[in-house]
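Q: Entry one of two.
A:
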Amino acid sequence: MKHPTPSDFVIDVTEAHVNVTFNPNGRLYRFGRLADPEDIVRFGPLSRGLETEAETDDNGEYSEEEVARMAHALAVKAVTTT
C-alpha cells in the first residue's frame, strides 16, 4: 500500500475555507475556517471537512482514511503557520 506525502496535495487557502486537492485522483477536501475564538479552542481552526467527488473514486493503492487525515493535517498547518 502506498502512503500519501505532502507533495501529493495542492492547498488553496481562502478567507473562509481551505481547499485541499489530492492529486492522484483529484478528490477535493474542503474545510471551513472557524472564526469564533471559543469554537477554535473547542474544535481547532477548521470545521470537519466536506469531501467532494473525485475524478475517479479509486484511490488506487492509497488508504482513503490516511489521505483524509493528511488532507486535514495539511489544511490545519496552512492556516496556523501563515
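Q: Entry two of two.
A:
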Amino acid sequence: MATVSEFVSVLYQSRTQAQVWHHQTNGIGSFAEHKALEFYYDNIVEKIDGLVESIQGYGPRIGGYTTKPLVDWAEGQSMTYFKGLCEYVAKERMGVGTESWIQNQIDEIMELLYNTKYQLSLK
C-alpha cells in the first residue's frame, strides 16, 4: 500500500505530466486531447491541495515527496497513462485515510480522472 506522500506525489506528477503533454500534442484529432489535458491540469491542483490540507489538519505534515522523470508525448500514451492512474488511485486510496471526508475528496479526484479519460476518448 502506498504511503500518503507517495500517493500525493503521484497526483502532483500527473499534473505536470499532463501539462507537458498538453504542450506537445500534435496531429489530426489532437485538439481534443490537448483540451482534455488542459482541463485536467487546471483542475487537479485544487483537489490535491484540499486533500493534503485536510489530511494535515487531521494528522501530521506530509513529507518525503518524490518525482519521476517526465515522458515526452506519443500518440495514445495519455489514455494509457490515465487508465493506469485511475487504477492506481482506486487501489491505493485506502492507504491515504479511511475517514469518509478524505475518501470523499479522493472520489472527487476519481471523478476528474474518469472525466479526463472520457475526454481523451474523443477525437
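A: Comment on entry two: The two ends are 36 Å apart (CA to CA). The CA atoms of residues 86 and 113 lie 6 Å apart.
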